[in-house]
Design a protein that fits this description.
Elements (H helix, E strand, L loop, with lengths): L1 E4 L10 H29 L2 H27 L14 H29 L6 H23 L6 H30 L3 H29 L9 H9 L4 E13 L2 E10 L5 H16 L4 E7 L14 E2 L16
Parallel strand pairs: 3-4
Antiparallel strand pairs: 1-4, 2-3, 2-5
Helix pairs in contact: 1-2, 1-4, 2-3, 2-5, 2-6, 3-5, 3-6, 4-5, 5-6
Length: about 325
């Protein structure tokens, strides 16, 4: 006996159309300012500005991929793609993370070279561009913050923009220091700060998207504890093949083979387990196979741990029973 419960929480609080408009507005801001920053960066001889511009390029790519992923994820399941294209957004998030990590390594190398051999830096241009960049990124961050950030795809784009905001703050401070003191190495130090922020965001995105690709359980759910909890449901004898994963970010799913005591109503016990999964763990998308323990439907090679009830009958011992 199987059950496939589709949750009601899969829809986004903000519609896909609204997400696209918000991301599109942020993309236009980022691309326009990025072009101007590249020109000013080379004119000022500032690695910090060029680093920021490169980071903004990854921002633009991140947002463009997010927009593409939203469109593809909305397509219904077809052919061999039984989940549709929901995981395209995870590919996008992982690409964003890897890009951030590679750029961070490159800019650390460049910044160290500039610490050793500091070039002339025009502090006034760096300061002005940094301040304008702060304003632009504040607005872009505000736009994306209104989109559906439960999506790892949108969250990836948001992290790009947010890190760029911090990077512009560091750049503006570096420009002010160069302008007031002539300390040119401040520009390279700002570039190192930007690289550190990129590393932090990149590691987080690669780790989180990697967990979904490897079908790890959501971080908020402990499968071992969940198995023990479900075995405590009255009538359950054993649970095996318990799997908990995420179809895509914010869309967890579970499946399990459940054995119940002979003579009990499998449907009632299945419904009770579904309630536990939904109410306590927000697992509204579950596929459960429920059989009687003596029905001969045990798996010969169960995947993962096997969870058993405290008694073979699947319920607490009855003190009045002649067997106790």
């Amino acid at each position: 006996m199987t059950s496939d419960e589709h949750g009601h929480g899969h829809g986004h609080a903000v519609s896909s159309d609204a997400d696209r408009k918000l991301l599109g507005g942020a993309l236009a801001l980022i691309v326009g300012f990025m072009i101007a920053e590249v020109i000013v960066g080379f004119a000022a001889g500032s690695l910090a500005l060029v680093t920021d511009a490169a980071h903004m390029l990854t921002d633009a790519i991140a947002i463009a991929l997010a927009l593409l992923a939203i469109r593809l994820a909305a397509k219904p399941p077809a052919g061999g793609f039984t989940y549709g294209f929901k995981r395209v957004e995870i590919l996008s998030a992982q690409a964003n993370g890897i890009t951030l990590l590679l750029l961070a390594v490159y800019f650390v190398y460049e910044a160290v070279n500039r610490m050793i051999h500091p070039p002339e830096v025009k502090g006034a241009l760096v300061l002005i561009t940094g301040v304008v960049g702060i304003v632009v990124n504040l607005f872009a961050t505000w736009l994306i913050s209104k989109a559906n950030r439960s999506s790892l795809n949108v969250e990836g784009a948001f992290q790009h923009i947010l890190n760029d905001l911090f990077a512009f703050i560091a750049t503006a401070i570096a420009g002010l220091i160069v302008l007031l003191t002539g300390f040119a190495r401040a520009d390279a130090i700002a570039a190192l700060v930007v690289a550190a922020l990129m590393l932090k965001a990149g590691i987080s995105l690669v780790r989180d998207s990697g967990r979904i690709f490897l079908e790890a359980a959501p971080t908020a759910i402990n499968p071992q504890a969940l198995g023990a909890e479900l075995c405590a449901v009255d009538g359950v004898v054993e649970i095996h093949d318990l799997h908990v994963w995420e179809i895509t970010s914010g869309e967890p799913a579970a499946s399990a083979h459940i054995l119940v005591a002979e003579g009990l109503d499998c449907h009632q016990i299945r419904m009770r387990i579904e309630e536990v999964l939904a109410e306590r763990h927000h697992l509204t998308h579950s596929t459960l196979q429920v059989d009687h323990a003596t029905g001969g439907s045990h798996c010969s090679d169960a995947h993962g741990a096997v969870h058993r009830s405290i008694t073979d009958a699947g319920r607490a011992p009855d003190p009045a029973s002649p067997h106790h």
